[in-house]
Specification:
By secondary structure, the protein is α+β, with helices and mostly antiparallel strands. It has helices spanning 16-25, 53-67; strands at 2-10, 29-35, 44-50, 76-83. A four-stranded antiparallel beta sheet has the order 2-3-1-4, covered by helices on one side. The longest helix has 15 residues, at 53-67.
């Protein structure tokens, strides 16, 4: 399974902890927090495992529905980036 981190697109001001909780509630596996890009001078981000990019996108969409029910604006968006 590939690892993904949610690093951008959080225009509604949810914390990394809130994003991680929403991803877990949406069914994501192996949800954790770490520094973005693995660098200590970067903010915390939520990471998770998913079998494919399309399933990671669906998990992010479901997490958005949990965080911001009914908000379809671009500001209520979570974007997952694959990393190794």
């Amino acid at each position: 399974m590939a690892r993904y981190e949610v690093t951008g697109g959080n225009g509604r001001g949810a914390s990394a902890e809130q994003v991680a909780a929403a991803l877990k509630a949406a069914g994501a596996d192996n949800v954790r927090l770490r520094n973005a890009y693995g660098m200590s001078n970067q903010p915390k981000v939520a990471t998770f495992s998913a079998p494919s990019e399309s399933s990671a996108k669906i998990l992010c969409e479901n997490a958005c529905d949990i965080l911001w029910p009914g908000d379809t604006s671009i500001m209520a968006n979570l974007i997952a980036y694959e990393y190794e």
